[in-house]
Design goal:
The structure is a homodimer of 217-residue chains. Chain A is an alpha/beta fold and 217 residues long. Chain A contains 9 helices and 10 strands. In chain A, helix 1 packs across helix 2 and helix 2 crosses helix 3. Chain A binds a DNA duplex (22 and 22 nucleotides) through helix 1, helix 3 and strand 2.
DNA sequence: CCCTGTGAAGCAGTTCACAGCG
DNA sequence: CGCTGTGAACTGCTTCACAGGG
């Protein structure tokens, strides 16, 4: 599709952080951003910022820095943020409901346009202006709303079934909170967030006090 | 403190997944687990499982596999899961409340023992059997309850202040959901979970359809 | 003279392939 | 003979250090 030059995974994972830093700089009135400025806000070193940004193309000016607006546009282009990406949340338990209420997605270009659950108590209920629809209608829900991202917020034992249904329905990527490994085609990228796992990882570093560090992507 | 042999970060991040897989095998009646079994359930390859587990010591039996119970004990020891680790959640917005209700922590050895907020609407409220206490009393809350992990579920602009207060109060590690970079001493390990960032990362891979993959730690 | 862009060196993590033990 | 444990090769990421343009 795009003739983009293939960006390393580690760099991709940092682009959103640079984006956030850049927005901060812009809103505080800066029109240019040096790699040192960005490094500072993003919590990494300047060499890494420059190497990372070089994968987007040559948008810096030697002796000056990066044009802030221009760089923001380039990052957005790389991340596919030029257009809004509609999202469906499957699973209206505590987490799913919290995600539905959470404004952070909306404002970052990922409007939540549908909520889905399999239980009769939940279906029909109105949450944050949306009516919860039934899991059996997922395919229709996805196609009618042009949904491209599915968020799985169900218990582990339902997750694979939900995942299969989302893929069948045609979502193009998945974010899962279910503590289980999902089987799915390589063509559908997944990100996994597992809260208990995060705490367990901290346990290791906490135990070896004076601990080095425990960075997350 | 512990004479443990220092486990690579990438391996530490996978131990919780192996643990989960192991528990699954045990509960389905297996008493031994081969690296291939675990690899299968954990979604990685067998060589990686063996290399990872070798950092814990030599607990496998050639020709047979690993003793499931024994391996579980070793993983728990490495992750410091032998004892319960009490947790405080700071920030009782949507996310904080959802986390407070979420049973997954309790059952994995991380009981939530205190909830904290700075707003008068929230303080005093009862959520899931706990009364929300005031942010100003954080130090006392932490020490009285022997809390060692703090979860930050506040908006970005409050996060640094909360982080500082948690560190001062003596928590030994932090899990943050706030979309901002935190400044804190190396002695306190942090993990960051940023939901909007995850979606933005997916955007990149989704865009280059047929996409390689987007793995999370 | 400042700050970018990048080869080259260094380091960490993964995968391979096989020796070795039960 | 099966499955672990591990050196060795390899791949990818980070850091360094500096050449080069404004």
């Amino acid at each position: 599709m795009s003739g983009l030059p293939e960006i390393p995974d580690a760099t991709v994972a940092r682009l959103p952080i640079y984006r956030r830093s850049l927005v901060q700089l812009i809103s505080s009135g800066e029109s240019t951003a040096s790699s040192a400025d960005l490094a500072d806000l993003a919590g990494v070193n300047a060499a890494k910022v420059r190497k990372d940004l070089s994968y987007l193309g040559t948008y810096g000016v030697r002796g000056v820095g990066y044009d802030a607006e221009m760089l923001l546009i380039q990052i957005d282009r790389a991340l596919g943020l030029e257009f809004e990406t509609p999202v469906v949340i499957v699973g209206m338990g505590n987490l799913g409901q919290a995600l539905a209420h959470y404004g952070g997605f909306q404002s970052k270009g990922f409007p939540i346009v549908a909520l889905v659950d399999a239980s009769d108590d939940k279906v029909g209920q109105e949450i944050d202006g949306l009516t919860v629809s039934h899991f059996d209608d997922l395919a229709r829900t996805v196609s009618e709303n042009g949904i491209s991202v599915g968020i799985i917020a169900t218990p582990a034992d339902a997750a694979q079934k939900v995942c299969d249904a989302l893929v069948d329905a045609g979502v193009r990527s998945i974010l899962t909170f279910a503590p289980t490994v999902l089987q799915l085609p390589d063509s559908v990228p997944v990100r996994k967030v597992d809260l208990a796992t995060e705490l367990q990882i901290l346990g290791y570093y906490q135990q070896r006090e004076g601990g080095e560090d425990a960075e997350t992507a």
